[in-house]
Every structure is written in C-alpha cells, then in structure tokens.
Amino acid sequence: MNNDDSTQVAQAKPPKAPKPNKLLTLEQKVAELEAKAKAARDELKEQQKKEREKNARALSELLKAEGLDEFNVESWKQLLPTIRSGLENMAATEKASA
C-alpha cells in the first residue's frame, strides 16, 4: 500500500457523528415544546384569574360607591337577567363598532 492509497482510505472515512448526548431526539423536542405550551397556558390562566379578581374588586367598589350594596341578594337575583342582557347588548355594540 503506497502513500496515495492510505490518503484515499483516510479520506473515505465518514465524518464523526456528534455525540448522542448533544442531540435532541424528536421525542425530547416534542416534550420540551409541550412543557413550554403548558407553561404558557398556566401563565395565561393565572393572568385571567388575576384580571377576574381585579374586576371583582372594582365591581364591588363601584356597587358600594353607588350605594347599590344596600340591596339584598334576592333583589339582585331577580334583576340579574335584565342586567346581564343589558351588559351583553352593550358589549355586542362595542364589539361591532370596533
């Protein structure tokens, strides 16, 4: 075997593959993306919860400021369908004009 033959043999070797621990398998990538999606869903859920709590405090303050907290729960329950309908109509109107 001459020098040219050994050079050709050396060049014919495939390149070294990256170490397996540095490669993410497809399953690992999917698991990572699912974990990120779950974290994002959890964060969104927490933000929505905080927004509802903030809204509940603001609503309570508004009812007190307007003296509407003096009415009993039964009165509120009777008028709630009318109040809900009015709020839904107002929200629909605002959404349509946006």
Task: Walk me through the structure.
It is built from three helices and no strands. The protein starts with a helix and ends with a helix.
| Low confidence ranges | none
Approximate strand percentage: under 5%
User: How many beta-strand elements?
Assistant: 0
- Principal-axes shape call: elongated
Features:
98 residues, mainly alpha, 2 domains, 3 helices, 77% helix
Please outline what is shown here.
By secondary structure, the chain is mainly alpha-helical. The mean pLDDT is 85.
Topology:
Elements: H1 3-12, H2 26-65, H3 73-97
